[in-house]
Design a protein that fits this description.
heterodimer; A: alpha+beta; Ubiquitin-like (UB roll); Alpha-Beta Plaits; Rossmann fold; 3 domains; 15 helices; 25% helix; elongated; disordered C terminus; B: 443 residues; de novo design (two linked rop proteins); four-stranded mixed sheet; 43% helix
Chain lengths: 528, 443
């Protein structure tokens, strides 16, 4: 890599040959406005927003397609550059409907932002605007408004270059150019909703999210997608204590800029529905409400002395929860058979870009914490179905969905004692002797270890309903009942304990896990 | 100076002065599109000599020495363009003949394709050999169906007689030629849009850099030359670079075709030695403005070039430098003559409408700006213009100029600004009186 020295706005920068002006500017924090440029897509150069002045070049040059050269002197704030930004914004806005009050993009729209920053003029356009298609459904998750589109072609290039599914193209010419689906195609690839994220304006919006909440009301919590063990970095965006949407957070070590559709919308299933808010104990005639004290006592009594116990933890439980669960189950029986829920499915080529074949984001971490003492989940499930266990403790999963429902129901009914801890009523909770109301991924803090061995932090984005307790607190209270008064408190405190015991996690501290996570064994945070 | 007698149905009989014709030398020979006729006039001798006796580098040097410049509009030196093709590239190389003649007021390539297709083909072959391309394309504008048919026949004849194909003239050189018909978009005459179209994509210009010489068709080294440029090559190789360079001016060598249309007594395609006086050409050779009317304006180089007023052409010669010094460009040599009955507002609107319709829509300034200008011209023409409109158009045109991906933006912006700047009084009157002053007074 040949070193090159360039100057941008008087600032001398040492960089390397082959980079473009916009890349170098981004690296040193000099903002050059852009629409069509996206670091993960090919250079289109069509918006002309990033035109900059380069000494000794007669015309302004687009920063996205101009490679740095020794001694290059770039001006991003010269009168010519400021004038052309106004001009380009004016061109982009003349046929735009300026319907911000009813546009979902308002508040995170690059036209709004750049207009406020670079233009701020009354429109000089007083001839008729071009009309285009409104509310055109592109696919199950994406809807298109042609009048708001600036034809930057980010969406087209995404479908050509990232998913290689080629659903979208540009049709027509001149100011009637517009984005369209190819005949007979539907924008339904497994990553389709990313086009909404990369659309800089309100042309492509999310059918699931639109009209639900104005974006400036959203609270954003950095977290990890609970959809699978890829561990995509996300922002959980909430309004009035409800999850409104997931957005990907950039992490080049994990998901780059992307998030799959399945992950993006999984919160509806995981966090939706009628919640369990009180413990239940089976009596004559069915499950009846009980206090936490009664329920925990019943569990202690039911599991203590059981001749054989199976423990099944959800793949969405955190490392901290898994660590306590393993400890707890082993207190009941040293030979308790423990597994984390894990089932694989077939992925198509597009899914393979991002998706892992499981739906257990923390299976790797949970196994490391000791939840994985037998021959894998399938083997444990077979043993459970064959009636090998007297008692079972099932956390966060509906086992009737993991195998033939009739067989699962029959096996669970034969158990002398079944504890099920979940957020909602499921077919499995219906068969339990004790049901405990727990919290979901969005309500708790903790860590996940993705399938590549990257430790990442989950944060609580919403407050759990009254009556439900975080799994870690439930396990800690049961441990206390069983005589271990270790005083496990916050996830940070539990993490400190596990970091003392679990191989591979030594010397890590909870606070050292930054927003991008830490690769286990990389020495990050384990420097000592 | 030479003219072409009944060269096409555009051309009226014109006076022929004593000067040897290069491009139009056989244009009036009956059945000259047939190989036998072309060969009997010495055709393909240059091609044979090139393949049998010349190294590509020698050929490039010869054409450099001739001073031949691209006749598509930009006037870039042809030999130099060829020399940019990397010699050591492992990729295939392509030669493309740009026969997508679409510039309003320009119909010279059409004449060559229809009446002398073998000259176009021979030039294409010579250029392909210069860059050692083994596949050449002739991209013909969709509307020029007859020209395409003539070229297809010429290519078929050349294959039959071994002028192209495998091991040409027993040498180790292979060359295939493919005639491709475009779908009629003006933008596809822009060389990189042409390549996109030829690749099977939407006819969108590509970003430069990289340039076609290194990253052209399918990312391979490619040269795109205009029909007229290529058609001059057989003569240059036959007579030598010096003979060609002896014609014309210091920087504009040889001869050039001019398509003359509009209010002129003898419209048609003319071949002129570069540097011929513009005024003499219009008044004497083309017979001047007919019906005793006065000249009001003339566009010298196709619709995308700035219009000139009569007093501006007084001392202009028809070569690249002289026309540029007068404030316009020689472009494609499409001379559009407008007499005093022409409403310049309507003429400007007419051109603006063309460019608004033909903008490819790829980059923001051209996509949005061309239609904006067209709409304002439209309202001035229809008596609804406002005083501020003219400065607004000039401003929009300035905002497009130089800020687009390809030269189309400039091509749309330049004439719009020129019409207003040169005929401002007429625009002002149109706006003030809310009607056309030119035509009303004439009626």
């Amino acid at each position: 890599m040949d070193p090159v020295k360039i100057t941008i706005d008087g600032k001398e920068i040492n960089t390397t040959k082959g980079k473009t002006v916009i890349q170098v500017a981004d690296e040193v924090g000099i903002e050059i406005p852009r629409y069509c440029y996206h670091p993960k897509l090919s250079i289109a150069g069509n918006c002309r927003m990033c035109l900059v002045e380069i000494e000794k070049m007669p015309k302004l040059q687009i920063a996205c397609n101009t490679q740095v050269a020794e001694g290059m002197n770039v001006l991003t704030q010269s009168p010519k550059v400021l004038a052309v930004r106004k001009a380009v914004l004016e061109f982009l806005l003349i046929n735009h409907p300026v319907d911000c009050p009813i546009c979902d993009q308002a508040g995170e729209c690059w036209l709004q932002d750049y207009y406020m920053e670079h233009d701020r003029r009354e429109s000089r356009f007083d001839v008729g605007k071009v009309h285009d298609r409104k509310r055109t459904i592109f696919g199950p998750n994406v809807i298109f408004d042609g009048e708001r589109c600036i034809k930057c072609t980010r969406c087209v290039r995404f479908c050509q270059e990232i998913t290689k599914t080629n659903e979208l193209t540009v049709i027509n010419r001149s100011d009637h150019s517009t984005i369209a689906l190819f005949d007979d195609s539907v924008l339904d690839n497994p990553l389709s909703a990313n086009v909404v994220d990369i659309c800089p304006v309100g042309a492509l919006t999310d059918r699931d999210f639109r009209f639900k909440v104005r974006v400036w009301y959203l609270q954003k919590t950095p977290s990890i997608c609970p959809g699978c063990s890829t561990g995509c970095n996300i922002s959980v965006e909430t309004y009035q204590n409800r999850i409104a949407r997931f957005k990907p957070r950039i992490n080049e070590a994990v998901n780059s800029h992307w998030l799959c559709d399945e992950g993006r919308y999984c919160f509806h299933d995981l966090a939706g529905g009628e919640r369990l808010t009180t413990p239940l104990i089976r009596q004559e005639g069915g499950l009846v409400a009980a206090t936490w004290e009664q329920a925990l006592q019943a569990i202690y009594a039911g599991l203590k002395g059981s001749p054989s116990i199976a423990g099944i933890l959800s793949g969405r439980n955190t490392n901290e929860e898994a660590y306590l669960f393993a400890k707890l189950m082993k207190r009941f029986r040293a030979d308790a058979a423990l597994e984390v829920f894990y089932q694989e499915r077939k992925l198509n080529e597009v899914e393979k870009i991002l998706v892992s074949p499981d739906r257990s984001p923390n299976f790797r971490g949970a196994r490391a914490m000791g939840v994985g003492s037998s021959d894998g989940f399938d083997a444990l499930l077979r043993r459970l179905l064959s009636g090998e266990f007297a008692a079972a403790f099932v956390v966060g999963e509906d086992l009737t969905k993991a195998a033939e429902p009739e067989a699962v129901r029959a096996a669970l009914q034969k158990l002398s004692f079944l504890v099920v801890q979940d957020t909602r009523v499921t077919e499995t909770t219906e068969l339990a002797h004790v049901v405990l109301p727990a919290t979901h991924f969005g309500e708790k803090e903790g860590t996940y270890t993705n399938r590549e061995g990257r430790l990442q932090k989950l944060n609580d984005a919403v407050i759990p309903p009254e009556g439900a307790l975080p799994d870690s607190e439930i396990f800690a209270r049961l441990l206390e009942l069983s005589g271990e008064s270790n005083g496990y408190g916050s996830p940070a405190q539990i993490f400190a304990s596990l970091a003392r015991e679990i191989p591979g996690y030594e010397n890590l501290t909870y606070d050292a896990i930054g927003p991008q996570g830490i690769e286990l064994g990389s020495g990050g945070g384990a420097a000592s | 100076m030479v003219g072409s007698e009944a060269a096409s149905h555009f051309a009226a009989p014109v006076k022929i002065k004593q000067m040897e014709k290069i491009l139009l030398r056989n244009i009036d020979v009956p059945e000259f599109h047939r190989l036998a006729a072309y060969e009997s006039a010495g055709g393909y001798r240059s091609w044979r000599r090139v393949v049998e006796n010349m190294k590509p580098a020698e050929l490039i040097d010869e054409v450099k020495a001739s001073g031949l410049r691209g006749r598509g509009g930009a006037g870039f030196p042809t030999g130099m363009k060829w020399s940019f093709v990397p010699k050591d590239s492992p990729k295939p190389k392509y030669l493309v003949c740009n026969a997508d003649e679409s510039e309003p007021g320009t119909f010279k390539d059409r004449l060559l394709m229809e009446r002398d297709p073998h000259a176009v083909l021979e030039g294409t072959l010579i250029a392909a050999y210069a860059i050692q391309s083994h596949t050449a394309f002739i991209y013909v504008r969709g509307e020029l169906a007859f020209g395409a048919t003539q070229l297809e026949s010429a290519v078929a004849e050349a294959y039959r007689t071994g002028l192209i194909g495998k091991k040409i003239f027993g040498s180790g050189y292979d060359l295939d030629v493919i005639v491709h018909r475009g779908a009629g978009a003006y933008i596809c005459g822009e060389e990189t849009a042409l390549l996109s179209s030829l690749e099977g994509s939407r006819g969108w210009p590509k970003l430069k850099p990289p340039f076609p010489a290194t990253h052209g068709m399918f990312g391979c080294p490619t040269v795109v030359n205009n029909v007229e440029t290529l058609a001059a090559l057989p003569w240059i190789l036959e007579r030598g670079a010096a003979a060609y360079a002896a014609l014309g001016t210091e920087k504009s060598k040889g001869t050039k075709l001019f398509s003359v249309s509009g209010h002129i007594a003898k419209p048609g395609v003319y071949e002129l030695e570069m540097g011929y006086p513009f005024k003499t050409f219009l008044e004497e050779d083309c017979g001047g403005v007919p019906n005793g009317k006065k000249l009001k304006g003339v566009i010298p180089g196709g619709a995308s070039m700035p219009v000139l007023r009569p007093e501006e052409i007084e001392k202009v010669n028809l070569d690249y430098e002289s026309v540029q010094a007068a404030g316009s460009l020689l472009g494609s040599g499409g001379v559009i003559v407008m007499d005093e009955t022409t409403c310049m507002v309507r003429a400007a609107w007419n051109l603006a409408r063309f460019f608004a319709h033909e903008s490819c829509g790829q980059c923001s300034p051209c996509r949005e700006g061309c239609h904006w200008m067209e709409k304002i011209f439209h309202r001035i023409e229809h008596g609804e213009g406002e005083a501020a409109d003219l400065d607004l158009i000039l401003n929009i045109s300035g905002n497009i100029m130089g800020n687009t991906i390809c030269p189309f933006g400039d091509a749309a912006a330049m004439p719009a600004a020129a019409f207003i700047k040169k005929f401002r009084d007429e625009f002002d009157a149109h706006i003030a009186k809310k009607r056309c002053t030119v035509r009303r007074e004439l009626e």
